Amino acid sequence: MEVVVLPTADAAVAYAHGLIVEHLKAKPSTVLGLPTGATPLGVYVRLVESYRSGAVSWRSVTTFNLDEYWGLGEYHLTSYAAYMRRVLFDHVDCPLRQRHIPNGCATDAVAEARGYEASIDQAGGIDMLLLGLGRNAHIGFNEPGSPFTSRTRLVDLAPLTLAANKLHFASGEEPPGQAISMGIATILQSRRIVVLATGAAKAEAVRRSIREEPNVEVPGSALQFAQDVTFVVDEAAAGA
Ligand code: GLP
């Protein structure tokens, strides 16, 4: 495990972006795992700039998002599918058939989850996964208590996550209490993982993920078992 501490959130974002661009240049047909949330927004802005400047192409890239709210269709403004179109896919040349996000409105969650795992396998597995960290150290939507052997499945969201994510929903709208998320074992199979965490609110999650004995109450601690993982954090997130 490697931990890179940068002075500011912007520097951490720039560093993570640099790692992704390097990877896309080295392997244009990269299978890339992608997160949502506020933390990676600056990475997406920079990735779009890199596409526009001609530094990288997305034509041969295959993407798999970590998760989607259960019950939200791809055209719901707060769905992760809509988020990804807004911040990345509407602006780069990644073909629709190569972009994967769990379907939050599937009729059968078990079949959807199984199909998602099969698609990852068919693509040859994830080469590089960019990951955020929840305040309770969740990864994807794998909340505390998630087995390290878990695969893509329907999960219940923790109260802390619901409170944090409520900000993104229109006033009066209740965020879904469930999501389809890649499992921890699915995440750990990625050949390279870059965890981006910034701000003091993430310091405890970063500290516990890196320093505690791996345990299911701290999903991020499972990353200690990853093949190749780099935590990219700013000083505030490194502070605890
Ligand atoms: C959500 C996502 C996670 C993300 C986390 C942190 O719950 N499912 O993948 O890492 O939020 O988000 P933020 O970057 O907004 O703090």
Provide key terms for this protein.
240 residues, alpha/beta, 7-stranded parallel sheet, 3-stranded antiparallel sheet
Layout of helices and strands:
Blueprint: E1 2-6, H1 9-26, E2 31-34, H2 41-52, E3 62-65, E4 67-69, H3 80-89, E5 99-100, H4 109-122, E6 128-131, E7 153-156, H5 159-166, E8 178-181, H6 184-188, E9 192-197, H7 203-211, E10 229-234, H8 235-238
The structure holds 2-amino-2-deoxy-6-O-phosphono-alpha-D-glucopyranose (GLP).
Your description of this structure?
There is one protein chain. The chain is α/β, with parallel strands linked by helices and 240 residues long. The chain is 33% helix and 18% strand. It has eight helices and ten strands. It has helices at residues 9-26, 41-52, 80-89, 109-122, 159-166, 184-188, 203-211, 235-238; strands at residues 2-6, 31-34, 62-65, 67-69, 99-100, 128-131, 153-156, 178-181, 192-197, 229-234. The strands form two sheets. Strands 1-10-9-6-2-3-5 form a seven-stranded parallel β-sheet. β9 (192-197), α7 (203-211) and β10 (229-234) form a beta-alpha-beta unit. The protein is globular and about 45 Å long. The mean pLDDT is 96. 2-amino-2-deoxy-6-O-phosphono-alpha-D-glucopyranose binds at residues 35-39, 66-67, 132-134, 140-141, 161, 165.
Short description:
The chain contains eight helices and ten strands. It is of the alpha/beta class and 240 residues long. The two termini are 18 Å apart.
